[in-house]
Model the fold of this input.
Amino acid sequence: MTSPRRTGSENSKTRLRLLDITERLMLDEGYAAVGVRRVAREADVAPALVLYYFRTLDDLFLAVLRRRMGEELERQARVLDSPQPLRALWQLTNHPGHALSTEFIGLANHRKAIRAELAAHAERYREAQLQTLTRNLTEAGLQLPLGMTPAVLLVLSTALTRVLVLEDDMGVSAGHAETLAFVEQLLQRYEGPARAPER
Amino acid sequence: MTSPRRTGSENSKTRLRLLDITERLMLDEGYAAVGVRRVAREADVAPALVLYYFRTLDDLFLAVLRRRMGEELERQARVLDSPQPLRALWQLTNHPGHALSTEFIGLANHRKAIRAELAAHAERYREAQLQTLTRNLTEAGLQLPLGMTPAVLLVLSTALTRVLVLEDDMGVSAGHAETLAFVEQLLQRYEGPARAPER
DNA sequence: GTCTATATAGTGATAGAC
DNA sequence: GTCTATCACTATATAGAC
Done:
């Protein structure tokens, strides 16, 4: 009863190249630049070959999402595991990996397969961050203000960085400098100056 | 040297209907649902008529943007002009008008004409909010924490509400309840319980 | 594993009749 | 002011040869 169409193996070199190209296209030109023909052209193969490895375009996007998000989850946990957990949290979302998330959020508007996968990942992601953050806040002996929990801190930091980047990309900057200064002042008060990571 | 193509008048009833339909489509199904044929079908006219009133699809989107954003600017200034400026600010971005902004932010990813117009509007918008907010904070005699300026408050509130709504729509809710409780607690501390608007 | 060729369906936009 | 008809593309996806 399964479809007669064939599919390429998971560890093909061509398959990996197609994933790389798709990811690069999303970062450089946005997800809208990704299409069967375009990816094929960049890889110097025939369009049909793309659909040999990924039966639909959604499958291609999902494969990129799964690969990169897996890596990001590890990386972020590592960065967040710092003796200055607040500074780590604040710097977390400035990494280039974050730009890809932004593209997927946009994609999720149009493609519900992406939406479902991304939502599931976002929850796992936040949960993992929360555990690391909570542990390191305790270890650092940091006293949060009344009512402020690690989860609140996480949502606030995520929201702020995401919107600042979004607005920056659009060319909107009103209030940004003051906000960054305010955050830096808070970091100073709670954690003192930035220290080089221990090793 | 100008194009020979004709264009409908600004106050045509049909033109207004097309704007209404486009706006409704954006809210109900997202901007991707808007196209020449779809809008025409909903209006029960021929596709060519849509392009008679709006020479390109960008023009259609821009017309919706200008109309609605003008109204929003007034409305928001009015709501923000409250004896409880912090509560007003917090409730500001929960209105349905906000959903349309979200769609335009998405559109701005693909269409640079929209991007430019939206960015310009966003700056004006924030500037206007900032003036009203600053004045009402002073009048209410509110003392902000060290380093926290009205502009910072505005950016923070905007960022938080925008991301909460975005995540909600996606089905991500981790940390939301705690964050809302934290904000409500802050509002209580600085402005006491919500009062009915004076009249 | 990779290709050519094609099916099928969508799009924005235009010319010109009524 | 509104229509029909059409141009010139774009797109994803499939069948089957090599």
